[in-house]
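Q: Fold this one first, please.
A: Sequence and structure below.
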Amino acid sequence: MLKKFLFIFHVLLLLLIPLNVFGKADTVNIITTLTGNEDIGPLGLIGGIFFDENKKRLYVSDSSNRRILAYDSEFKYLSALQPGGDLDYPAGLVRGSNGRFIVVEPSKKGVLTIDIKRKSVKLLDFSNVPEGDTFYPGNMTIDSADNIYIIDRANSRVLLFNSNLRFKREVLRENTTSISDIKVDKQGNIYTLSTIEGLVRKYDGSGKKILEFGKRGKGKDEFGFPVSLAVDQKGLIYVVDQHKSKILVFDKRGKFLFAFSRLGWREGRLAFPSFIFINNSGTIFVVDRGNSRISIFK
């Protein structure tokens, strides 16, 4: 009788243990969502997100409304940057330690540099880039030294510009249809995503490939239509699957761990997400395109 009681007690104890002890998707929880308000009206099509670790500010490129929105560390709206008619359709963006914004402008087939202090808006100079006449900008990222990595979708390559916004070198070139997204981790490793191939690739700082994983399919560890990726401080790799309306999480070796969220309109659910960014404290920002909002997870 005592053995039976102890068995039942242990089973109940296991059931009471939180799922996050085992590393399940319950380790990721929704914090809040950002939508429009009385000051800014409804959000349009969101092109990109960037969290400035120095200023503790969140910046969002609202492509439809030709503006960059700023939020504080508590995600309260602060201001909107609308530099005249210079922003046509702002997409991806980063912000350097000097406060200068770098913004992808697909309509101009170029990249804008916005210096608020000097009140200047200029196109990034691509004159020294080989095959620069066929350049078409995609997503970009920035490292701790303010080096900027820009996807050239026309040539399936990644271009590196230094902190002075001068072209440095072609970091890598992939024999693929296109590179969809790019991120750099704290060690300087480069991660790229190919939507068409359903592949994540990892390179060292010199451009040597050190990891490749993923495939298209319906399995829980396979991609339906991957569009964006991010890497957290632990080296975990997060991939946005737009068709599954999920975020798939992999370890640093490319092994599938879990997925979180699903299709829906309630807070915490996603509808055709398009971009992901993770800051140094592990806050996860997801562009929830189908719901016209930004979902923030922890």
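Q: Good. Now the second chain.
A: Here it is, same layout.
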Amino acid sequence: MMWMLLRLACCLVVLAAAPAWAESLTLKDDHPQRYVVKKGDTLWDIAARFLEEPWRWPEIWRVNPQIHNPHLIHPGDVVVLTFEDGRPRLRLQRETGPRVVRLRPEVRRIPLEVAQTRLPMETIRPFFAHEGILAPGDLARAGRLVGSDDDRIILGPGDRIYAADLLPGARIYQVFRPGRRFFDPDSGELLGREAVHLGEARLEQAGDPAVLRILSARREILPGDRLLPLEQAHVASELIPRLPDRPLDGRILDVLEGVSRIGQYQVVVLDLGERDGAEPGQVLGVYQRPGVLAMAAEDGEPLSLPEQRVGRVMIFRTYDRLSYALVTEAMRELRVNDRIQAHP
């Protein structure tokens, strides 16, 4: 009888040991001692049955180079929980023999269409297609909507418009309105600016002014709005939740939708970008300092309480100096200026 082989997701190169700054692994209270692999299981799914933080899967699986085809497991194989020096390990025991072998580390890739059952992808999908952040200097290069055929103030799909100083070389342009500015909390340096997506327009006649026709509008378009060549963001077909491979330290700069209280599944802006090592899929902790103790030590000075982790975020889109992240966990209200660290 032929086995139905289960090919796990693409293998990544990972360190066998946890980062030095990572906290100890925590098993779920209701974790099993043994688990029988089913068709469709991945190492992420299996790790999630045992770990509170399944994105830390590399710390519980280990490489055994002597296993033939270690990137394959079979429905019916038995995963057994063991301990080495007090640390949990998952080992694979095949029904075809009594030997216990170790699994090769594999990553759980989450396709966007599948991930909707795990994360509210409808919340972040617009940021892949439309919403974005302007780097310093981008606004100065953008064209300006200077008018329309009949001098109407509010414009929409089908309207013909005129734009001055339009960057050449594109056929489709994004119509946007400059939004909030994001500054470095410490230095005050401008890191970027929100580009509020209004719609798209197609070039009909080059020149200055150029002639365009509005193809779509998500909200009203007004004279004075800006235009840049439309660059569709690369939509990764998969999100790979994982710990960063090095410490990161930043802050929440803003929360979308103009609210001051931040909860689960809201989108926040972080002052961490590609130059800092931020990547889509990275899971980071959110930290707050509770306050100070009025009663102090012998010198009479109040004592500051240590920072405590109050939530987690997952980065899903990055720019040079900034990134968008989804709040995946909030144990209390999160706030702008809360610290973000790769110490989840």
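Q: Anything worth noting on the second one?
A: Residues 121-129 form the longest helix (9 residues).
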